[in-house]
Amino acid sequence: MAGIPGAAHAYIACAVLGAAACTLPALAAGSATPWGAVALLAGLYAFCESPARCRLTAGAAGRVTGRPADGRPGRAADGAPPVPAGCYFPVLLAAALLLPPAAAALAAVPGALLGPTGDRPPARPRRVWRAARLALAVWAAARTAALLGGPAAVGPSPDLPYALLPAAAAVLVFCAVLTLLDGGILATAERVPPRDAWRGLLGRSLAVHAAHGLVGLMTALLWRSPYGWPAALFALLPMYVTCWAHTQYHRERAAHQATIRALVQAVDLKDTYTRGHSERVGRASVMIGRELGMDEDRLEVLRFAGTLHDVGKIGVPTRVLRKDGPLTREERRIIELHPEYGHEMVRGIGFLGEARAAILHHHERLDGKGYPYGLQGAEIPELARVVAVADAFDAMTSTRSYSRARPVPTALAELARCAGTQFDPAMVDALTRALARHGWQTAVTSDEPLPPPAPAAPPAPGPAREGPPESGAAGDGVGSGPARGPSRRSGR
Amino acid sequence: MSVPCAVAWVWGCALGVVAGGVAWTLRDGVHQPGAALAFGTLIAFGGLARWHTGPGEREPAPLGAAGALAYALVPAGHGVPQVVAVAVTGALAGAVPHVARGRGPDPDYMARRVLTLAFVAVCAGPLHTVPDPGRIPLLLLLLVLTALCDAVLAALLLHARTGHPYTPLLHDELRALPGIGSAVRATGAVMALAVTVAGLWALPVVCVPLLLTQLAFRRYAAVRRTYRQTIASLARATEVAGYTPPGHAHRVAALSRAVGRELGLSGEELTVLEYAALMHDIGQLSLVDPVPEGATAPLPAAEQRRIALLGGAVARQTGVPAAVAVVVERQADPYREQPLAARIVRAVNAYDDLSGETAQGALRALEHLRLGTARDYHPAVVESLVRVVARGGVEGPVPG
Q1: How many Cα atoms are found within 13 Å in the side-chain-facing hemisphere of B260?
Q2: ipTM, two decimals
Q3: Which of A160, A227, A252 is the closest to B224 by Cβ?
Q4: In angstroms, what CA-CA distances link B393 with A31, A371, B159, B255, B372?
Q5: Ordered mean pLDDT values, 10 residues apiece, chain B (400 residues)
Q6: What are the boundaries of the signal sequence (chain A) (predicted)?
Q7: pTM exceeds 0.90, yes or no
Q8: Which of A78, A135, A360, B145 could bond to A343 as cystine, CB 3.0-4.6 Å?
Q9: Contact B241/A314, CB-based, under 8 Å?
Q10: Where do you find CATH 1.10.3210.10 in chain B?
Q11: Domain B241-390 maps to which CATH number in 3.50.30.30, 3.30.1490.190, 1.10.3210.10, 3.30.390.10?
């Protein structure tokens, strides 16, 4: 229980009290709770959410498509695939349309208590919180549906166009209550500022919940029909299949990200001294792109372009890459082939899109004296101009065999000096502005077991995210982490 | 392109069913035109929603298939001929824009759909005479039977088209049953029941979630494709680095797949085999100096095994399934200690290393493999490779 702030404890306690108050009427002596239906729906929801089922599907489908091969510690190692939250809400929405509010709230509790919590401790408060939150939301949805005459519209003689109204209202209330409660827990437990806590929570989930509401409505309708509850199970099957596809998607995506990292690591294997360079260039490129106002999709492509820009170095003989001292003309010519090698490697990867051109042209210069094609000015793709600046910046601010690391202001001054001849001044300005605003952090994740799930992940709790470059010395061992300072491996 | 006999038969049956259905309906007129129009529109819309279909999608038009199934299951006095006529008309109307863009529906898929639909419509007649409580289990049974018929038919068509052994193909089809196909069938059944209970308004309500399912599967297929491309480009790393001749990894992967099919591997095992074949030389990236010509087959056994172990270590880092790394690791072991996939990779890799460009080279390479069947190469694998090569190698273009 350590690590949960007192405010969050109080908040969870309040939610639990509220949920208890909502469900108690169902347990009272005189209530006409339809226990059979409650048990069936609760069992169904618990079955869908149970970790045993997750392991079942993981075992059946995970052999080809999934987990990282070795038992590295990390997200994928606990066996449960990342089922997106709320996949099985149609069961609860059907309960909200079928049952009295108190009984519907009760149906949500067992599944929420039994479900997997992922690998994030602490498990018990998480489960209790989840149960209370769902019970409250389902109760509110059922209450709304009852006010609008939902149960009567659903069956036994359904009034279809009208039944859409209580169903839609129930979904809206369900969403709103969940959003409200989630924002609260974010604010109290994770200490997210209140304004950020609620922003974006509702809009993101509404479309999916609307479809869930339709499934719930159809389930309720068939349940009340002469065919009875077995027919309702038919209505839930597509939802189940959808969730399965969803899980597989996330599994495969994680595997794919690991493979992209392997491409980067393949370069590190040959050129140990530039370790972390690729990832930092990716990060700096995204900083520049964001400053230029690119949209998220393009930024994602830009991150790949920056991260993979040197992938062609795989094609350069290791002896040349690792050579100490000045290169001969011939060796320089060989190294200058690496953008073309890189392009040759990644040209088959469709989703990289524009990034492929950026990999090919990241050594072009604005005055046309670069390689491989000697393009000039605006002939050079925009992303390539971004990556060129990011690449040069990181090369200057990290220690190389031929030079010591320079401080960030010196590097920026150098970039500004070359702007117009070598670099695009717009990109240099953007980098300067972005660094002034966010600072520069040199620690990289490329030697950690698994990548962060997505570039747009919420900020990790803790300090040092925006510190000056010198404060980023939180390296995680030999050869990784900061590219400067005494922890840098020097035995080459 | 010639059409195999079995495919011609299936097409003939489907065409006969369609012609009969349309002629009958034209003669008798359309019963309940409102419902026919609603379902026909739904099927056409489902066909329209077939946008950006990628390869490898099992069900390109789930909404259309579910609508047709529902129309066959609705107890409303319209006979089998009208079901077929409405479904085909709807599907054709939905296919018009796609045909105009030169991406018409696959005729095999259409024929399969017509035949299974006719099967459902014929069976659904007696189903409606059963009283309500017993109807749901019977409906379930009918859906399962339909799925099995569809799988058998699909495997038959694929077998006739590709010449791969029938059993693994059927196995593949059966394994895919719980996927989007089951969502389609369940949606069809729900649609039929809901229309019976609540009227035609139920159609749009049931459709929207299926669109969500389609989207989820499409995303899954897309990420699978991307993943495969990335693995392939990782495989190309050794070629760009000059460790292996250009195209080697792809040739080995395609040939391994063909041999694996021939030896009865299916689905998941084939994927593991293909990924392992793509990555089999990746261990050479750890060498400071390249192996001459990149050919590991002529190297001493100890060196081959060292490179294989290095490759396994790299493969493990890439997040591919453990089985792939194991195959990469053990590709240089004597065949008696190897899993089947590693035997295939070993033999095919040696064949590609030794054969070169000429036909004589290929014959010499096969001769070398046959001589090595005492210890290095599995005899059955070598014989299968000989058959595949004799058929003209690998069908289809080599990607990349």
Answers
A1: 27
A2: 0.80
A3: A252
A4: 74, 41, 17, 7, 21
A5: 82 94 90 90 87 64 90 83 92 88 83 92 84 81 92 91 82 84 90 88 88 86 84 82 83 91 84 91 74 71 84 78 88 85 90 81 85 86 88 52
A6: 1-28
A7: no
A8: A360
A9: yes
A10: 241-390
A11: 1.10.3210.10
